[in-house]
Amino acid sequence: MDYFKIKTVDDLSKLHNDAFSTASNSTKTTFKQALKRLEKIYNKPFNQINLHFVEQPKAFMAMLEESNYSDNTKLSTVASILKLLKLIDAPLLTYNEWLTYLKEKTNEKQIDNDENLKSKLKVLVNYKDVKDMVKMKANEFEISDSKSMVDFRNFLIVSLFTLQIPVRVSNYVNMKVVDDEEFVDDNSNYLLLKGDSYKLIFNKYRTSHILGTKRINIINPTIQFLIDKYLTMYNKDSTNFLIQSDKNKRPMNGRQIEEAFQKGIENAIGSKISIDNLRASYMKHIIELDPEFQDKLDIAQIMGFSTTQIMDKHF
After folding, report:
1. Top-confidence residue, 189 or 126
2. Based on the domain organization, do 275 and 176 belong to the same domain?
3. Of 216, 62, 224, whose CA–CA distance to 159 is shortest?
4. How many domains does the chain have?
5. Residue 163's domain spans which residues?
């Protein structure tokens, strides 16, 4: 093992890349970044650390815990050290000591994640109640022609998150309105209006790299009416973006959409709630419908885009 004590980050990265030649570039980069992180922790070049941390895992763990790195980064660092220990043929006892620590921290993180999920489900609002109140408020927006552009836009945003599955805010950022499939590409999200069909097309969203393009048919007549009225009376000068600022006609970012939602929901139900809180309430609503239904859908699917029609039958 002494042979490797004078090796640099580049030397060991090359050794890693040769040993794991089929690994992705991301995996190779992660390993090299972990070694550079060790240089920062010890405040010296890697070949001057002399693999000091290998035989003193507890001391290193204490230093790592005191750092400002995130929990994920800390776990990634330890995982990379384990790979390094294999590369330099470290003693099995040493390797197992590091492995035990990684398993303990991973389990702790999973417990924390479970507790965070439980706390999110302890929401103060009932999704069904919110939806019913928004339905009642919708009558006012359907009948009145005196609503300001801002008020109508905010309520449309509220309806998109309460009268159908509440997807992530980012799904609506830069969403474009088109009237034919020929204008749809893979680079944006769209609201496709064609005849009597209202369809949301999501190409860009958090898990799109796994699930691909998702389409949701808007079947709620209230949302359909609000969209028609909004585009006809309030958004007719837009450059084809669905949710735009009243000040500069540019598409609103996620923070602006969140703020508009909170103003709109306060006007509709008398209190402010966040979109995340509403989504958590929706999750709880779905989970409580049917234990078998819960078994068939994981959290991503519940908040995702497939099984839409099945969900709509329940609320």
Report:
1. 189
2. yes
3. 224
4. 2
5. 123-312
Q: Which residues contact 196 (CB under 8 A, 6 or more apart)?
A: none
- Determine the pLDDT at residue 33: 93
Q: 3-state DSSP call for residue 241?
A: strand
Domain identity same for 129 and 47: no
pTM > 0.70: yes or no? no
Final residue of a structural domain among 120, 141, 173: 120
Q: What pLDDT was estimated at residue 58?
A: 87
Q: Please name which of 208, 205, 172 lies closest in space to residue 190, comparing C-alpha atoms.
A: 172
- Examine the domain organization and report whether 158 and 305 are in the same domain: yes
Kindly give, in sequence order, each residue whose CB lies less than 8 Å from that of residue 89, ignoring residues fewer than 6 positions away.
1
- Are 92 and 199 part of one and the same domain? no
Structure-token pair, residue 203: 């190409």
Whether residues 168 and 109 share a domain: the answer is no
d(CA 48, CA 42): 9
Any idea what DSSP says for residue 50? T
The model's confidence at residue 224, banded by pLDDT at 50, 70 and 90, is very high
Q: How do strand 197-202 and strand 214-217 relate by DSSP bridges?
A: antiparallel
Residue 99's identity, in one-letter code, is L
Q: Tell me: do 30 and 103 sit in the same domain.
A: yes
Asked which of 94, 120, 146 is the last residue of a domain, the reply is 120
For residue 41, count other CB atoms closer than 10 A to its CB.
Answer: 17
Find out whether 206 and 192 touch, Cβ atoms under 8 Å.
no
Hey, what are 140's tokens?
A: 């006012």
111-115, 132-136, 279-283 — which is least confidently predicted? 111-115
* Residue 238 pLDDT grade (very low, low, confident, very high; cuts 50, 70, 90): low
Same domain? 68 vs 152: no
Distance (Å, rounded) from C-alpha 314 to C-alpha 39? 55
CA-to-CA dists, residue 221 to 60, 82, 175, 251, 301, angstroms: 60, 57, 20, 25, 24
User: What span, in angstroms and rounded, lies between the C-alpha atoms of 20 and 179?
Assistant: 49
In degrees to the nearest 10, what's the CA dihedral of 118, 122, 123, 127?
80
